[in-house]
Amino acid sequence: MKKKRKVWTIIAASLASVILAIGSSYIYVYKKYMSPFFNVKQTVYVYVNDNKDYNDLLSQLQSVAHIKDVNIFDKIAGTMKYPDNMRTGRYAVTPDMTCKQLLQNLRNGNQAPSRITFNNIRLKEDLAKRISEQLMFSEGELYQQLNDSAVCAQFGFDTNTILCMFIPNTYEMYWNIPVEKFIKKMKSEYDKFWTPERIEKAQEIPLTPIQVSIVASIVEEETAANSEFSTVAGLYINRLKRGMLLQADPTVKYAVGDFSLKRILFVHLEKDSPYNTYKYAGLPPGPIRIPSIRGIDAVLNHAQHNYIYMCAKEDFSGKHNFATTLSEHNTNAAKYQAALNRNKIK
How far is it, in rounded angstroms, from Cα 233 to Cα 231? Predict the structure, then answer.
């Protein structure tokens, strides 16, 4: 009888020890689960892309979020069946965030919105690259959409004019937005930008919003001085109204495919391209860059003057000498050509 009692006492003590150990372990894990779990001083972000690679997420939590105990996170994530239910997105990790909070956000897809910015864009390739660096879809996906005539037509553009739809600004959207929804979002922002007031100003020129953007793109490539935007815009509008060739050097650079050209030569002017405004009248078929809001508004509010000629200043300041007569312009051009020769610029 005494032996049985002793055995039960040992069993009871062992069970108590196990229960105590389990309880202590549970309390330890619970405390970790409910307390700040990341060694960060400011908000950082982890990403779950289409691959939904759980191990990659764990690596980000260690390298970016400096998680205190990745093993505890892994165990709790397993009990919540999170690895099998991952959702794409960009997720914020804040200094005071607990393991529980992050896992709830990850599992429910409660991601942090991204602020998308683009400016100083010339080509479709440039836009696709810049946007893909900020969102989940690939550069190739966006580039393909921009070259799809059916997609462009859906929004009232063609493959030459589609870049006019993108108004450089900062936009808020989710990182995992599909490329199709991104383009729809840009069209929505385009429609907001072209207010009745702006449309009325365009009609008074008269130009369509797309044509305004094309002129603005030439203006911004023509001068590096913001203060000249409205003057240059007025000059090109004067030429359009008179039925003159625009003869804009930047369109020749675009046609040749070399924006680094310092000097436009006769061989460049002979380039057979609808973008060469020395050969073809009117506006080119599309913008030669994505114009800024400032550039577009400079066209809509262009300076009223009689200038129809312009030539870069001989001091290479990026500014221009403007003229109303050809003789005046030839004098300015001679000064600039002499400066090019002195500096051995070809």
Answer: 5
Residue 330: which region, alpha, beta or left (left: phi > 0; alpha: psi -120 to 50)? alpha
Q: Is the pLDDT of residue 12 over 90?
A: no
Report the percentage of the chain scoring pLDDT > 70. 90
For residue 115, pLDDT over 60 is answered with yes
Distance between CA atoms of 88 and 164, rounded to whole angstroms? 31
Residues forming a β-bridge with 322? 310
Picking from 240, 217, 243, 239, the residue whose alpha carbon sits closest to that of residue 298 is: 217
Q: Are 114 and 131 in contact (CB under 8 A)?
A: no
Does any domain span residue 82?
yes
**Entry pTM:** 0.87
- DSSP lists the bridge partners of residue 67 as 38
CA distances from 183 to 7, 166, 168, 267 (A): 75, 9, 14, 39
For 18-28, give one letter per residue: b (16+ CB within 10 A) or e: eeeeeeeeeee
Please state, rounded to an integer, the average pLDDT across all residues of the chain.
91
Domain match, 61 and 125 both: no
Task: Check if the beta carbon of residue 287 is closer than 8 Å to that of residue 215.
Answer: no
E-state strands within 34-97: 44-48, 89-93
Each residue of 63-110: pLDDT tens digit? 999 999 999 999 999 999 999 999 999 999 999 999 999 999 999 999
- Both tokens of 73, joined, read 């996170």
CA distances from 191 to 171, 172, 198 (A): 14, 16, 11
CA-based radius of gyration for the chain:
31
- How many independent structural domains does the chain possess? 3
- CA distance linking residue 34 with residue 44, whole number of Å: 19
Same-domain status, 242 and 334: yes
Separation CA 177–CA 270 (nearest Å): 44
